[in-house]
Automatic annotation (TrEMBL):
Region (Disordered): 215-235
Residue span(s) of domain Oxidoreductase molybdopterin-binding: 247-392
Transmembrane segment boundaries: 25-45, 57-73, 93-113, 119-141, 178-199
Listed InterPro entries: Di-haem_cyt_TM, OxRdtase_Mopterin-bd_dom, OxRdtase_Mopterin-bd_sf
Name of this protein: Molybdopterin-dependent oxidoreductase
Keywords linked to the UniProt accession: Membrane, Transmembrane, Transmembrane helix
Length: 406
């Protein structure tokens, strides 16, 4: 296609609509692909280094996708007139426009999610996902069944074309309906695993039983009175389970937790010793920088402050580095941040052991910062002098992880 033609005056409305339509189709294909990469957990595993770059591109192209729609707006009246007698085409048009506008609006909120309350960004993410899974398969179906090669497949082009007769028993129509059905089925098949994965974040019951049963076989300690329901519990929202490696398998026998580096008393605990440490309960919110949040989560664990006091940190230490049993993920806090009262080395959620996919048996919780600070499968804390740059920070996430309180 020739992009310049979109802007020239010589075209009539019909031709312009076709050009806008093509521009839109290309832009949304790129958005669908980049969006899918951002959603995909395999992408998180295999290409973490370009994740932030893909997100930036998705955002920019998202803004560009506004242009064809803005150009279209003045022509909409005329377009609708041409569709006066074609109800299906009109419904199609309204549907497509609704999907596009919903995606763009929720996308803008997500782009600036650090400036809006978390409740709004969580809703925007749900809406963005919903519009994606309800809209994108349809948009693809629409593009395929309206494309030239599909039409050629239905009705091979011949020299002397006769006008189509609109009758149900016309073989061309039957063939078209059949091919449309097949196309629809193929698209649904391709999309269903992702849609199912998305639905599972909201309906954990959909998870196959074998995966719900937690592989982590640690002994459940006695929860504090206000940790388990009915006093504890009551969190709102769902976790999306993230990992950048295979989830590490840990067992009670070989589990080790250590605090070392610039401390006077290097500490090392096995599971029994770790459960002897005095635990607190806190209810806090959990914010992921991609826009989702879980509210009022009841965690029970050892305040980090307490562990650091036991280890007796030396004057030289300026940063606290956290290691994961996955062997790859790390992050850091300054000593001052690490000493905040609500930073917790958590062992229980709602009075039960934290599940493996949720980062158990032991994970860090830093409620006032985005959750990329909350290292899962935490097994080592090292006190250091020079700043360490964490896993995601190295790959483009902001070193300022504070959640704005506005
Ligand atoms: N070891 C490890 N810790 C991690 C991550 C990870 O991939 N690996 N992801 C971080 C991010 S970005 C978030 S949002 C939370 C997600 O926690 P959840 O998987 O329990 O929902 O864990 C954080 N801690
Ligand atoms: Mo995150």
């Amino acid at each position: 296609m020739n992009w310049r033609l979109i802007f020239t005056k010589k075209l009539n409305v019909g031709q312009r609509l076709v050009r806008l339509h093509h521009a839109n189709a290309i832009i949304f294909t790129v958005l669908a692909i980049t969006g899918f990469l951002l959603f995909s957990s395999s992408f998180r595993l295999v290409f973490p280094a370009i994740r932030v770059w893909v997100r930036e591109s998705h955002v920019w192209i998202g803004f560009i996708s506004l242009l064809p729609i803005l150009f279209y707006m003045p022509k909409m009246q005329k377009h609708l007139k041409t569709l006066r007698k074609r109800k299906n085409h009109r419904i199609n048009l309204y549907y497509v426009l609704t999907v596009l506008c919903t995606l763009i609006l929720s996308g803008v909120v997500l782009t600036y999610h650090r400036h809006v309350p978390p409740l709004i960004s969580s809703s925007a993410l749900v809406i963005h996902d919903l519009a994606t899974w309800l809209g994108v398969p349809y948009l693809i179906y629409h593009s395929v069944t309206r494309s030239k090669w599909f039409k050629r497949l239905v009705k091979p082009v011949k020299k002397e074309e006769k006008p189509l007769v609109v009758e149900d028993h016309n073989p061309i129509y039957r063939r078209r309906t059949f091919l449309q059905l097949i196309t629809g089925l193929i698209i649904m098949l391709v999309f269903s695993p992702s849609i199912l994965k998305w639905l599972r974040t909201y309906f954990p019951e959909l998870e196959p039983k074998s995966r719900v049963a937690d592989a982590n076989q640690f002994r459940n300690p006695q929860p504090a009175g206000d940790s388990a329901p009915p006093i504890g519990g009551g969190r709102r929202g769902e976790f999306r389970y993230y990992t950048v490696t295979e989830m590490p398998t840990q067992s009670e026998e070989n589990w080790q937790f250590s605090i070392d580096g610039l401390v006077n008393n290097t500490q090392s605990y096995d599971w029994d010793q770790f459960l002897q440490l005095k635990r607190d309960v806190q209810v806090s919110n959990f914010y992921c920088v991609t826009g989702w949040s879980v509210y009022d989560v009841t965690w029970e664990g050892i305040p980090l402050k307490k562990l650091l006091e036991d280890a007796n940190v030396t004057k030289q230490a300026r940063f606290v580095k956290f290691y994961s049993a996955d062997g790859v993920y790390t992050d850091t806090l300054t000593i001052e941040q690490a000493m905040m009262d609500d930073v917790m080395v958590a062992v229980l959620i709602d009075g039960e052991l934290i599940s493996k996919k949720n980062g158990g048996p032991v994970r860090l919780i830093v409620p006032e910062m985005y959750a990329y600070k909350s290292v899962k499968w935490l097994n080592r804390i090292e006190l250091i002098e020079e700043e360490h740059v964490g896993y995601w920070e190295k790959r483009g996430y902001s070193t300022d992880a504070w959640v704005s309180k506005s």
